[in-house]
Design a protein that fits this description.
Blueprint lengths: L1 E7 L6 H14 L4 E4 L2 E3 L3 E3 L5 E3 H10 L10 E5 L4 E6 L2 E7 L8 H15 L4 E5 L17 H7 L3 E6 L5 H11 L2 H4 L2 E9 L3 H15 L3 E6 L26 E6 L4 E2 L5 H5 L3 E6 L2 H6 L2 E4 L1 E2 L2 H10 L2 H10 L4 E4 L1 H6 L2 E4 L6 E4 L6 E18 L2 E15 L6 E4 L2 E4 L8 H15 L12 H19 L2 H8 L5
Length: 479
């Protein structure tokens, strides 16, 4: 079975987007292709049709490949709850915690589960495009690695290294990655790809020649900076950074950047709406002045509530509610808006006082809710998905939650991707905020925009890379 590992010189080098583009490009060519990521460390996740929770990026990659997403595509998901621990999701279901000290040595059972998932997936398709995590040059973690060269060695996967030239140091990062790997790992490296390039390619060529000369890795192509592609980031480094800025925006949205923000992709649909500007921020002034303030999800609700108070942002939220200015809380953000949070599970903090801005109370349970949900609002259908331990008790006056005046809360993620609901709700928000914003009648749907971006990625990798050559490389797997 053919297989390819797309590794990166760092987090946010563009591995996820490259894999997404390759999956769509090969699917369009008639190849039965599927994405795979052994282990994803991300608080941006999605619930599959079968009830499994996986990384949001892998869900999107499955869409690009034209396959139904499942836990096979991301068998291990680590959701950071603090700097010292992460919550483990194994084959789509909760599976305890992993402490920082266990990261290098305590993952053997996770590795075997990931390898088994890869083998099962590879038996069902022609080609598996695997995405690495972080960088394969993290040699301090190599002994327990099963998502970079550990995966590649297990299945003899030819490996391509992606480097981000926009952040600078791309040539050094590429050489350094090669130099830090041991000889057995290096034998699987088949080349490198330069990503996010802007400018005159001829200026770059001499540097590429030097890297190839010193490493023996051929340069496989340069993918340009793609201004309008900002799909479902999985990395905290990317949240809000690449959202388009509408110069004619009349509705300003501020999204609080919590230390442990979860499912920040909820606001992507707002950013795609014509006339709406979205800023992800911790600046109290920006949060105060925006037409709409969003408190997104959090993987550490009690801790992030404390952070909100320490930054003076809790006072900003309270002042907005007192003035009748729109606020939306999603999942953890919704829980914060209520009166109390009883959490013996996530933070073990017991009963904590919330912001008291919605008549709601939250009780955390040991069982995690993973579900796809449907409802309606003012006659418009609403769909979302649920990922939470906290169960909120409140009047059912808003999809997945409650509403009091211009303060809204929902436990559902993803509701804003519904075009009719999003536009009707934003019209109400704009009126309450004194904005002249109105929906554009012929604006494309969010689903159509997402598909267009996936196709734009596929077009870019098709033009920049030799897909026939890459497919031939992938067919070396296990040879």
């Amino acid at each position: 079975m053919a297989g390819l590992l797309v590794a990166g010189t760092s987090s946010d080098a563009g591995k996820s987007l490259v894999v997404t583009g390759l999956c769509r490009a090969w699917a369009r060519a008639g190849v039965r292709v599927a994405p795979f990521k052994s282990q994803n460390m991300s608080n941006n996740s999605m619930v599959c049709v079968d009830g499994a929770e996986i990384g949001r990026a892998q869900y999107l990659q499955a869409q690009a490949a034209g396959v139904e997403a499942s836990s096979l595509h991301n068998p291990v998901l680590l959701k950071p709850g603090s700097d010292r621990r992460a919550f483990v999701v194994l084959r789509g279901q909760p599976a305890g915690e992993l402490a920082a000290g266990e990261y290098a040595t305590g993952r053997a059972h996770l590795a075997e589960a990931a390898f088994a998932a890869y083998a099962e997936l590879a038996d069902s398709v022609d080609l598996v495009v695997s995405e690495g995590a972080g960088s394969p040059a993290e040699v301090n973690l190599r002994a327990g690695d099963y998502t970079n060269m550990g995966l590649a060695r297990r299945f003899d996967l030819p490996t391509v290294v992606v480097t981000d030239i926009d952040r600078g140091g791309a040539l050094a990062a590429t050489y350094g990655t090669w130099a830090l790997l041991d000889d057995a790992d290096r034998t699987l490296l088949r080349g490198y790809v330069v990503n996010k390039f802007r400018g005159d390619a001829s200026v770059l060529a001499p540097g590429l020649d030097v890297v190839t000369e010193r490493t023996g890795m051929p340069w496989l192509g340069t993918i340009p900076w793609l201004e309008d592609v900002w799909l479902d980031a999985e990395d905290a480094l990317s949240v809000g950074r690449s959202m388009p800025a509408d110069p004619n925006a009349t509705l300003d949205v501020a999204v609080v950047r919590f230390p442990r923000t979860s499912n920040a992709t909820d606001v992507d649909a707002l950013a795609a709406e014509p006339g709406v500007r979205v800023r992800v921020t911790g600046d109290p002034a920006v949060c105060r002045d925006a037409h709409l303030l969003v408190l997104p999800g959090s993987r550490a609700t009690v801790s992030d509530l404390g952070w909100l108070r320490s930054r003076g942002l809790a006072d900003v939220v309270a002042a907005r509610v007192a003035d009748g200015r729109p606020v939306l809380g999603v999942c953890g953000g919704y829980e914060m808006l209520g009166e109390t949070i009883d959490d013996p599970v996530e933070s073990a903090a017991g009963v904590v006082t919330g912001l008291g801005l919605l008549s709601a109370t939250t009780t955390f349970g040991m069982s995690k809710v993973l579900a796809r949900s449907r409802g309606s609002w003012q006659g418009w259908p609403v769909e979302g998905y649920e990922i939470h331990h906290g169960v909120v008790a409140a009047a059912d006056t808003f999809p997945g939650g409650t509403r009091e005046g211009s303060t809204y809360g929902t436990i559902w993620h993803g509701t804003l991707e519904g075009d009719d609901f999003r536009r009707a709700w934003l019209t109400e928000v704009a009126a309450a905020a004194g904005s002249s914003w109105a929906p554009v009648a012929d604006a494309p749907s969010f689903a159509a925009r997402r598909e267009a971006q996936i196709d734009a990625l596929a077009d870019a990798v098709t033009e920049a890379l030799d897909l026939d050559r890459l497919l031939a490389i992938a067919q070396e797997a296990g040879a």
